[in-house]
Amino acid sequence: MNYFKKILRFAKPYKKYAILNIIANIFYALFSALSFVALIPMLDVLFGDKDANKIQEEPVYQGLGSAKDFFKDYLSYHVHQISQDDASVALMLVIGLVIALFFLKNIANYLAMFFITFLRNGVLKDLRNAMYKKTVELPLSYYSEKRKGDTIARITSDVLEIQHSFLSILELIVREPLTILFTIATMLLISVKLTIFVFIFIPVSGFIISLIGKSLKKKSDLVQKEQGLFLSILEETLGGLKIIKGFNAENIFNNKFQESTNKFYNYSNKLLNRQNLASPASEFLGISVIAVLLWYGGNMVLEEGTLDGSSFIAYMGLAYNILTPAKGISKASYNVKKGNAAAERVLEILETDNKIKDPVNPVEKKEFISALHLNNISFAYEKEKVLKNFSATVNKGETLALVGQSGSGKSTIANLITRFYDINEGEIKIDDTNIKDMTQHNLRDLMGLVTQDSILFNETIEANLRIGKTDATEAELIEALKVANAYEFVMDLPKQLQTNIGDSGNKLSGGQKQRLSIARAVLKNPPIMILDEATSALDTESEKLVQRALENMTKNRTSVVIAHRLSTIQNADRIIVMQKGEIVEQGKHNELIAKKGTYKKLVDMQSFDS
């Protein structure tokens, strides 16, 4: 229940629906009890069990102890007055009363469900929105060890499970207990002795039912984890379909997926079979209580004469009326246990502490004035440092190029400047402002990013570009495409800017995708540009086109270029050569060639004419 207390905060915006649901449930419970009591005068009329002399005068209320007799006599008196000893009229009248009460009961039930629908779906919507917002806010480091499919499972099926469990809890704490309460109150009015006898047996049956559901949370947790695993396999399969087919690895992934779904099948069977035991077990135990009641109550009618037949039949209806809500409560308690596992998984994400936090009183920086400073920065992804005491200053309008072999720490610097990760030691400043003193939104407003992998979305070209600037005019879009040398191929497409580029932009070539990524960054027009191996995916012709575009783009900007192809950074104001997270050389292209050191070796390996 602790997890659901935390989930309940999502119901606050919809509390008016909860209040209306409770009001409707109160009427449902009241009409539910009264509908059975109304059977008593009908049975009296049917079986002639009523003394005619007793209903000649209107009964007088004499206190709570005689409330049951007063209610019976009051109904019987007025039925007799209207029917004037015509039994068929009296019967029709009482039947009409019973139908009216059942109709009102069902109207109240519908209204209760009507109002709860807004609450349920509202909580579902807000919970999913909160999950998505948190998913986007969490740092990249959080997802380095997490399976995407597991996160998807938590946002979809786990949240849906909470929705069902949430409804069960509301029934558990409102409608069903109220129904039981009103029914018991009515049963006590009819016969205190018989009701005490009934309640000797109810705790026994309740204890037996509770034993069934103890392992539900554990089994439900296994089901949800396995669902997350096979969704992850599916997500990885769709992402790597080309490799799977190219290496004839279909059977390997088929076997992995089937192994996971088989586990899901077994866990689900155990969970549902245990859950399905709730309803028949509670019904059988309820009927057992009714059977004992028939024996004991029958003796009160036939031998002791302390209870009349019509009251006993109505009492039996009331006793059975407890079974449905009792069964509902037992089923709801199982759902709570099952949903508890889902709530735990959802809250694990919602309550994950975001280590990259904005300051309480941030500095707002609207422009870049003089220089970007990296002062003695060190960083480790886990224990081993991938960057050690790195220092560099990039003046406004300069281009700094970072080169080195894979794993030398080049891309890490891009991740630290954009604050996708936080440095362990040192500081990064824009002018005199530490980037940790700014909001992440403010910091990234000053930066444009082009990554090695062209990250595009299953949208039109225009929609992908507008991520850089939502209010861009068509002229600005076209100018950005021209700067990125993407204008010609876009204009050759059937729908031009309105062309949908498919999942991850896979309808385009690698070079075309990268040029669109560059156009998106150009459209944003930031003062600082981060180019993380932006030309590595391009063919030679595209590289030359884009290189020219990059040179035009970086003229009036501070640029940090992480280069794989060294031919692209010959004109950089400064080149830093990195190895194992440290600076081994720095200078201009010609200076570094003349040194005949690490940079010269890298250039020679790429075999281009210096």
Automatic annotation (TrEMBL):
It is a multi-pass membrane protein. Residues 19-338 form the ABC transmembrane type-1 domain. GO terms for cellular component: plasma membrane. One of its GO terms (molecular function) is ATP binding. Signal peptide: none annotated. It comes from the Bacteria. The chain crosses the membrane at residues 20-43, 89-119, 196-216. This is ATP-binding cassette, subfamily B, MsbA. The lineage of its organism: Bacteria, Pseudomonadati, Bacteroidota, Flavobacteriia, Flavobacteriales.
